[in-house]
Each structure stands twice: as structure tokens, then as C-alpha cells.
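User: I need a structural model of Claudin from Phascolarctos cinereus for a docking pre-check later this week. Nothing fancy, just the predicted C-alpha cells so I can convert them on my end. Input:
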Amino acid sequence: MASTASEIIAFLLALSGWVLVSSTLPTDYWKVSTIDGTVITTATYWANLWKTCVTDSTGVSNCKDFPSMLALDGYIQACRGLMIAAVSLGFFASIFALFGMKCTKVGGSDKAKAKIACLAGITFILSGLCSMTGCSLYANKITTEFFDPLYVEQKYELGAALFIGWAGASLCIIGGIIFCFSISDNSQTPRMAYAYNGATSVLSSRTKYQSREGDFKNTTSSKQFDKNAYV
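Assistant: Understood. Predicted C-alpha cells for Claudin:
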């Protein structure tokens, strides 16, 4: 019972983390920068893995998509690949988890389901590591440019998408670790097997009773005969 509850908690944590990681791909604010005037913010610059935009004080946004994938910076290409890999691994890990959980009717025996659950945990951990690496690589580029005194172009700060990605990666890793430990719980507490022989009829029960009674009479008579023979 405890292992089933831990698997359900692990699945909910990992699935929530995968949803958060998936939501970071279309999120706008991977990095953000503002130009402040004396009274109001005059412009806000922001970018993600697909485009760069600027929003003025009136709320009008002008965006520019990255022109070519081959002309992109290396860190953006790496972040794209890592985040797409994280989403794909999380999708397959969710399917493996549904087959490996004890509360489902598919997946085979308990031993086979434990192995599938462990595979789901490893896949969730890989998904979290890919997301963590992608967000950390992007954040490292932002902080390096921000604290570089020789960098004269527009400097950005960390956006909300990075924090969402880190949170989702952490949940995926935690859920995957719990799934991996569930295989030890399944090996320590095997499921009890009960044999069902079917319902016995009234006639068969009477026959068994009469046969037992006859055997008892035969044994008592044989004992009496043995005693009389020796007398």
C-alpha cells in the first residue's frame, strides 16, 4: 500500500514537472530588459528561443523571428535541442509510468511492472537533467554578458521562463528518484497469492463427511478386534 501511494505521488510530481517544462518552450520571457524614463517605463526588451521583441510604453510589441537556424548562436541551438529532448523524454516517461504503476491493470506481473516503473523514473530524471542543463546554459550566457564590463550591447536579466524550467526540472528529478526506489519496495513486499478451489456442493460435502465417518468406525472396530484376540 505504501509503495502504491509513493508511485502515485511520484507520478503527480513528475507529470507536473513535465507540464512546467513543456510550458517554457512557447513562453516569451526567457530574458528581459527595460529602459526606464523619469516617470514610466519607455520600452521593454525580451527574447526567447525563437524571437526577440520590444514593447513600448503604449503596449505595442514589435517582434523579429530569428532569421536562420544555422545563423543562430550555439547556445540557443543547444538550448532548443535540450528543451525539446526534455519534453520528448517526459512524454515517453509518462507512458512508461502508467504501465509500471501498481494501481493500473496493464504491464504484466509485479516484477515486470517494477522494472517498467524504474525505467520511467530513469527517463524522468534524464528529462529533468536536460531541462536543467538547457535553462542553466541560457542563464549562464545572460549573466556572463551582464557582468562583462566590455559588453556594450543591450544587457538582459533572467526571465520568468528560466525559473519555471528550473522548477519543472526539479519536480521531474524528484519524481524519477521516487520511481526508481519503488522497485526496491516491490521486491521487499511481494504480492500474496491465494488459490481458489471453487465452491463445494452440498452432495460432495455429505459424501466427504460419510467417508470420514466410515473410516472412523473401521479404525475403532479394528482396535476392538485386536484387543479381543489377545484376551
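Before docking, keep this in mind: Residues 51 and 65 are 4 Å apart (CA to CA).
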